Amino acid sequence: MALKIKENNGVFFAEGSINASTSFNFLNHLNHLIQNQQKLTLNLDSVKKIDNNGVFALYKAYKNAIVKNVDFKIIGKRSSSILKQFNVPNKS
User: Fold this and answer.
1) In terms of DSSP H, where are the helices of the chain?
2) Is 2 exposed, middle or buried, given 0-12, 13-18 or 19+ CB atoms closer than 10 A?
């Protein structure tokens, strides 16, 4: 399944699967957003599947946001379980 990212009122919504086939482009897109935003909120409610590649892409983007001093929030039903894998608290 393809991955789409849509924006609504400053919140970015990921839809589809974040896996080995989509994680590279997903990470590139997130890093582009991080370069151009002071604040980034990513909603994962419409993500159907996420594998280790997807979690790692989110982790790398999260670390990049910290370095760039961008407030990056991951929200949605699965956000707590993903953030636990990062060893960071859920700020949302």
Assistant:
1) 23-36, 52-67, 79-86
2) exposed
Who's near 71: CB < 8 A, 6+ residues apart? 38, 39, 40, 65
pTM: 0.84
Residue that has been written with the tokens 């997903």 in this structure: 26
Going along the chain from its start, the domains and CATH numbers come out as 3-7+22-86 (3.30.750.24)
| Tens digit of each residue's pLDDT (9 = 90 or more) over 10-54 | 999 999 999 999 999 999 999 999 999 999 999 999 999 888 999
Q: Is 25 left (phi over 0), alpha (psi -120 to 50) or beta?
A: alpha
pLDDT band at 77 (very low <50, low <70, confident <90, very high): confident
* CB 63 within 8 Å of CB 83: no
